[in-house]
Specification:
Chain lengths: 251, 251, 251, 251, 251, 251, 251, 251
Amino acid sequence: MDPGRLKTLLERVRAGELDIDEAMRELGDLPFRDLGFANVDHHRALRGGFPEVVLGLGKTAEQIAAIVAELARGGVNVLATRVDAQKAAHVLAAVPGARYEEGARAIVVEQQPIAETGRGTVLVVSAGTSDLPIAEEAALTARLGGSKVERLWDVGVAGLHRLLHRRQLLESAEVIVVVAGMEGALPSVVKGLVSRPVIAVPTSIGYGASFNGIAALLGMLNSCASGVVVVNIDNGFGAGYAAALMNRKRE
Amino acid sequence: MDPGRLKTLLERVRAGELDIDEAMRELGDLPFRDLGFANVDHHRALRGGFPEVVLGLGKTAEQIAAIVAELARGGVNVLATRVDAQKAAHVLAAVPGARYEEGARAIVVEQQPIAETGRGTVLVVSAGTSDLPIAEEAALTARLGGSKVERLWDVGVAGLHRLLHRRQLLESAEVIVVVAGMEGALPSVVKGLVSRPVIAVPTSIGYGASFNGIAALLGMLNSCASGVVVVNIDNGFGAGYAAALMNRKRE
Amino acid sequence: MDPGRLKTLLERVRAGELDIDEAMRELGDLPFRDLGFANVDHHRALRGGFPEVVLGLGKTAEQIAAIVAELARGGVNVLATRVDAQKAAHVLAAVPGARYEEGARAIVVEQQPIAETGRGTVLVVSAGTSDLPIAEEAALTARLGGSKVERLWDVGVAGLHRLLHRRQLLESAEVIVVVAGMEGALPSVVKGLVSRPVIAVPTSIGYGASFNGIAALLGMLNSCASGVVVVNIDNGFGAGYAAALMNRKRE
Amino acid sequence: MDPGRLKTLLERVRAGELDIDEAMRELGDLPFRDLGFANVDHHRALRGGFPEVVLGLGKTAEQIAAIVAELARGGVNVLATRVDAQKAAHVLAAVPGARYEEGARAIVVEQQPIAETGRGTVLVVSAGTSDLPIAEEAALTARLGGSKVERLWDVGVAGLHRLLHRRQLLESAEVIVVVAGMEGALPSVVKGLVSRPVIAVPTSIGYGASFNGIAALLGMLNSCASGVVVVNIDNGFGAGYAAALMNRKRE
Amino acid sequence: MDPGRLKTLLERVRAGELDIDEAMRELGDLPFRDLGFANVDHHRALRGGFPEVVLGLGKTAEQIAAIVAELARGGVNVLATRVDAQKAAHVLAAVPGARYEEGARAIVVEQQPIAETGRGTVLVVSAGTSDLPIAEEAALTARLGGSKVERLWDVGVAGLHRLLHRRQLLESAEVIVVVAGMEGALPSVVKGLVSRPVIAVPTSIGYGASFNGIAALLGMLNSCASGVVVVNIDNGFGAGYAAALMNRKRE
Amino acid sequence: MDPGRLKTLLERVRAGELDIDEAMRELGDLPFRDLGFANVDHHRALRGGFPEVVLGLGKTAEQIAAIVAELARGGVNVLATRVDAQKAAHVLAAVPGARYEEGARAIVVEQQPIAETGRGTVLVVSAGTSDLPIAEEAALTARLGGSKVERLWDVGVAGLHRLLHRRQLLESAEVIVVVAGMEGALPSVVKGLVSRPVIAVPTSIGYGASFNGIAALLGMLNSCASGVVVVNIDNGFGAGYAAALMNRKRE
Amino acid sequence: MDPGRLKTLLERVRAGELDIDEAMRELGDLPFRDLGFANVDHHRALRGGFPEVVLGLGKTAEQIAAIVAELARGGVNVLATRVDAQKAAHVLAAVPGARYEEGARAIVVEQQPIAETGRGTVLVVSAGTSDLPIAEEAALTARLGGSKVERLWDVGVAGLHRLLHRRQLLESAEVIVVVAGMEGALPSVVKGLVSRPVIAVPTSIGYGASFNGIAALLGMLNSCASGVVVVNIDNGFGAGYAAALMNRKRE
Amino acid sequence: MDPGRLKTLLERVRAGELDIDEAMRELGDLPFRDLGFANVDHHRALRGGFPEVVLGLGKTAEQIAAIVAELARGGVNVLATRVDAQKAAHVLAAVPGARYEEGARAIVVEQQPIAETGRGTVLVVSAGTSDLPIAEEAALTARLGGSKVERLWDVGVAGLHRLLHRRQLLESAEVIVVVAGMEGALPSVVKGLVSRPVIAVPTSIGYGASFNGIAALLGMLNSCASGVVVVNIDNGFGAGYAAALMNRKRE
């Protein structure tokens, strides 16, 4: 209930125009329904510069197209993650203005210019080439959320020199997202080299006792480097989202 | 190898005082040993304003006292986590200048003034009274890391009104740490209310199918609220450390 | 053994028409075989107004059609759950009178009018759109079991306002079924708002560390809200069945 | 905000006694803080006839005594579960009016008469003698919640006759709580015999591959008998609470 | 209801001494209560020559003593398993006629001569010295169940020669119980050498990834040797019981 | 080394026809290669009346056909388990004399008459219709191993009367195999009714928290009925094999 | 930075051709970028005689072909593991000089002669025929790494004689790789027979409680034979690589 | 059967002193009983220079003392691992010649000089100070097994510089044992730096989602660095044993 409406109501009570019982009935509806954060505008504010998001995983091409189209109707940006190329073709045919980011396996409908909201850059680091789709998903999400993004690919711990090489780049980032499968050791190593916040993303890359990413997840949760935080297995979106949030200038 | 030493070396080469082969031998030792980040000063820089840390869990009072004393010798601040009252008494007797933060079950040796490094405040939120030691550990760590800290205790999801009440406080924080055991639902709810970064700390509070915090951990990793990041079970220290890092002003 | 038959037997003994040895032989068969609950009528009574049920999961269209047809022969209502649209087409072609409830992925043969047996209504609440098939399965089962059913869709904990909005509806139900995947936090939040019994249904919605619904299951079993009870992952049928049972008027 | 207070406020506005700005300030605080369900009275209404509850597990005798005393101050009934005899002695010495229910390992402070709120009786059934503390906890909780309670002990599935014997008793109950460890098969067998709602409580009784109750928990979640609902391992309190809720007459 | 009683009842009916209604009332109670297998005699028959059993694990010395004394009152043999020496001293002091089998960590009250019921012998084989308490528990149980028992200790798979040595003994047994911890490979090797039934008992011996016997349990369940059957971790009693049952002559 | 060959060797030594060094060389090869149990005849003796067995699971139709044909060449009986109808058609076309047992999803090449080796009958009991393929596999294996087999289908614990009905049949068997999925409670109930050995077979029937048969497996391992032994999930073959072995007359 | 370049730099400093500041700038870049081990040559030295490796699992035929072709461009040997026959056909068509090792499910591009680097032979032992692809992968890898390889197939623990037979062969090897699924007992038995290092490879062969190789993995980690080391499930490559490394002559 | 005895037997046959039937009887006993590897001498040869070993974990001081004394009677070296200081005092008092290696928590009875059997050195590397007891156990075992041992302590991945520093030392070793808890990343990093065999030892150091070493174990099994092999959690002994074996010169 905005102050204007509440003031009018009280003025009408004082003026005797509004019966006290009627006023009470109207006010009785107030809790929850008209709370600031409950209305659409507030929700939009919460979402900030981020696009609306659809998780494509486990949905048919038809379902994805329908939801993306529905969300896009409001004129906002829309991001659909985990969409393979075949489904993407269907969605692109059905939703005008949609584009496919193949590397990130994501569909984007970009109807609003992206506001530059970051204090610095988000750096996305990945261990192996198989981790790239998740890393690109993180990078795309952070970008759509208003951050400048840099990438550092293929710097797994079995070849440390590739990483040590780029210490400058690591330290210059505002927030670092580190994507790795198998033993998931890269975030510890990266965090040991810099004083920046590190968000670790375990991927399901591996086989046998990798248990679809559990090994990497546990490795990251048990990092011996202080200050590593973790998201769900293959959750590039969540990491990119959190990184952009952490990087965001406070207005 | 500090610039001074390198310059001297080159000048001696130019002056013909130093044989090229000898110069090469000396430079050959350079990689790794004298890399900027390898020496103590750099390590100190990486650590920034954070104290040295000892995990008390699984160590005897004697071991904790010895390590804390050793670290404190350097004049830095020291934090020992997961120390019960009985062990703490022993440590305090052995280490001059140490104090016990009972709520956080931590020992602190504060030899340096804490530099105020935060852009804003770190808010620590906890679900139940049993989660308090972990929540206080997070708060203490963030404080020692240079952040102003606020607390919001006992706002579990089974009594939402206590949380909704404090939406202002939630939104005003720069970073929010949310500590919860059992089903670990509180971070999702908090993240749904605000646009701030949320670090979730699962605790081992619960019994039966809580599996010492696994239920809470999984709940947090699977949060339906975008942008929640997670640390290890009962890792209040890690959450506080990451929060202070995210809150840190860039010099 | 019904009283009539037993009485006749004893009368024939007294009348000397039945030899004591013969009588003993006949009575010796009595335990188990003729116990009230062992015969078909009793079984029917146990089942009450509920339909016969077939779990379609893991069965071929041919097998489902055969079992449904067999059960339907007795003139009772039949419910086949977890039947996809393709299999359903086959079953409908094979079983006269069968209809497909697409939302609930279920086949119904409704040959008997549904007796209204409920004291009040069963409310089915779901967190996300992906949870809908399980939620609709619960709603359909409760309805076929004689309860009036209401639905409240898409009120996940990351957007609390949508739920708070409907507190009246929640409290007015006799029993509430809450369906949620991912972190499974919704039942705790709902139970915290009302004094009604809550049956929680974890779904396999999610990925990575959701472990096909284990995260949601554990979350619900560890609910910090007193009085939440839980069924198996994706078991919408079981929840709807239990809800209708709890709602049932005692004759 | 209770209607009386709201009415008075509006009347004072109309009477010109209360400035509109002041009224707005007071009403502005209304959302969340004074929502019907947020104040203590409403919370009491939600709790209904149930006592305040403390989980004694993992708390010291001193902590339990302090919390129980604090809660009891309000004049309400208090229940502390999972308190062993030694701790109980301490609590009883510290809290006037507290009594120890040894069978249920629980402390009760009964300051209010228990309102009889049940439509029928709650029957608590247990498989083995080792399951008794959990079964008694369920029975005690249901009783404190206003239900008449009956008990049926030691009717494990390896000796079916003891159970079959008491079919009458089973069917006569309004709600049945079934407590079992090891393979947790009893709820399935009980549910197969009656048309009443069954709440299954797995216990941690067993060894080896019982995994502290996981075997029983999984057995109950996978019950082949329709309509069994489950609570956490050893959660006798939760089962008794839910049973009393299901049994409660609607005013 | 034993035949004698039933005959008398029918004779009294025929003789007109018993009213038909009264007879029906008496017979009406018959199902379940007086079923052959429900009375004590039948239960005794089911139990056959086996002693009454108490699982000492998790019980206090007082509780064990009380239960053993209670069971022994009936004049039957009693076996209490998993009783350590300290508790045993208490029980022996409290229960006249009880003796402690230290190797098997079991208390025995042997009040009846053991009937020799076996067709052949039960051979108990163990892998390591740490497995002995469980192996002795199996041997003792089989012996109390009426079987002759032979023992073959310390023939782990890392020293095959000790086992190959005794092939004659292996083949001569009627049933073989094989007890092993760690990788649990011994039952496969034994079964590969003989054509006798093999009951495998995993023990909790090991550490780290033995997970308290899970490794051994899984190894045994996945035996590549056809016909190995398995019992719970550390369940020497169950294996000895099953072995004696398999070895039992049919009367 | 057969006695004849050894005798000849020694005679040639005595006759001076064979040099002692040559004799030693020949005897030096003896261990392992010519050990009684190492030759084919002994292996055949170990296998007894059982057929050669191929696990079809995870093999192509071509692979199964090739292995079955190879084994059948020796004139023995062959059993291939876990072969679906489509693959079976291929195998039958390729292997003369092979037949498909559809109920057991098995291929049999029966080239030898089955020797009747049992002391009594093997009874196979199954809980639900979905468990039938595994139950039939057990029955077929026991039959091919020389035992008379009886079947008792669809007697799950949710409808106890169907089981109680057949107590006579249960007790008359020499060995009972009990096949059940979901909560796996049937073996406990069966064992509670009879004094015969019970082999429990968990099946992967179920969904969600059945974890492909883990729930049933754990339930059976934790059976409260003494003397239940267990095989791997879906291992009908192993249970049938063990049952025939236990039932075998000793020559 | 190779010695030549460094020498030139210093000589130019001495000659006054290079300004000291410029020299320092150039040297400042030195750490990490030009460290000996960071350049390609060093990496090649680390890799030694081993081929470049691609894990085919989870990659499309197109992706495998592209990576193999890329790596082969350098003239080195390339190994692609876990490539099925269908994908292999595609890769062979696309990459000149590639061959398919069907038994090992691997593609090899052999452009360099294999240097014989072993002190002795690597023996690969496998338990069952289904383990062969993994065993062949190990054998192929060891061979490409410069070791002579011998094979011993189908010597599972259920038929010990086949293994005992070949003790000579076992002891003669420098390193033994043992590949086994199901209960994974073979490495323990082999290690018990010889004094050579044993590398155990668990395979995913099995079903039910084999949990895709976890049972075998745990069995191997818990081996009672001292000195068994283990690699990931199905990791024939890793075992062959480690074996060749252990067998390698030190230059 | 040693060659001497066999030769004598054959000579007595040739000389006619031994009847052929008697000779056959004697030889018939030969398999298994007198196989070369079955007698004590062979077993000693297998064990090579290694001491006899006792796992102290889970044994009382009395048991350890008794077993160590028994083994030491033969004049060999004896190693008892996992013995805490208190138990060690007891053992030292009871066994003459025993000494306590406190760092390795092990008791050693060194009665034989250690034969130097290594080709090079075994290097033991540890990540954190809490990993030291396990690392020292590995070092001690390798030393007792005849290898020269070097140590590199406290080079965890969060501070890479300490490790990079010592690349020379790493590469100079013949075999490297790497001991690490928490995320277990150190072996991957070490293996990425050198071309030597690496044996990884996960430790139970950590808390929460380290699950007593499972996280480290999984990390090591999934190492992205080729050729890392792994032993059980906390199995320093096994790693040291395997390292000495790999390092052993072949006579």
